[in-house]
């Protein structure tokens, strides 16, 4: 199985409706909010450091995730609207998509936040190095290291000290 991570710009493709339908079946509204915010122009992931990525297997969109400016924490980006099709979970697609978003974020910030919606999501984010942080509408945050010639420098830090607001 080949997984292709693509940046989504200009327009949302029709196949996002399949992800929205699956998310709704699971009781999640964040993909619907993504579609609504995109259509009204409220959020198109186009501010400095923002981006929206899709995970594809063949021509099928099987996951989506975005990065926006975190309005509650100066200089931070927030992981948003992250969703993987239920039939595609457990195959490393979510990890690949999250790591691509974090790699993108390294050029723009040193902290990424996320709001994990449930215990399973919290465990996923913690497996990537996010630390619990229950403030400002976020449940977790991650301090990033920027790329360097040292391969170890691109690893995610395990210990972080949150900045004061």
Description:
There is one protein chain. With 165 residues, the chain is an alpha+beta fold. The chain has helices at residues 16-25, 30-40, 93-105, 119-127; strands at residues 3-7, 51-57, 60-69, 76-84, 111-114, 131-132, 140-143. The protein has a seven-stranded mixed beta sheet with strand order 1-2-3-4-5-7-6, with helices on both faces. It is globular. The N and C termini lie far apart (43 Å).
Please give the number of β-strands: 7
Biggest β-sheet strands, sense, barrel: 7 strands, mixed
Quote the distance from N terminus to C terminus.
43 Å
Work out the helix count: 4
What is the average per-residue confidence, as pLDDT, rounded to a whole number? 87
User: Structural class, judged by helices and strands?
Assistant: alpha+beta
Report the sheet-strand fraction. 15-25%
Low-confidence stretches: 147-165
């Amino acid at each position: 199985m080949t997984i292709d991570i693509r940046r989504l710009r200009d327009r949302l493709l029709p196949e996002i409706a399949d992800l929205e339908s699956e998310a709704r079946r699971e009781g999640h509204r964040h993909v619907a909010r993504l579609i609504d915010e995109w259509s009204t122009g409220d959020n198109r992931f186009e501010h400095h450091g923002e981006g929206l990525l899709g995970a594809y297997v063949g021509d099928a969109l099987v996951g989506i995730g975005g990065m926006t400016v975190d309005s509650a924490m100066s200089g931070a980006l927030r992981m948003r609207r992250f969703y993987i099709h239920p039939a595609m979970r457990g195959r490393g697609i979510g990890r690949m998509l999250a790591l691509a978003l974090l790699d993108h974020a390294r050029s723009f910030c040193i902290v990424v936040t996320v709001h994990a919606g449930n215990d399973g999501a919290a465990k996923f984010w913690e497996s990537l190095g996010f630390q619990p942080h229950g403030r400002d509408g976020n449940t977790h945050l991650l301090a990033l290291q920027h790329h360097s010639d040292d391969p170890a420098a691109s690893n995610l830090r395990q210990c972080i000290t949150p900045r004061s607001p």
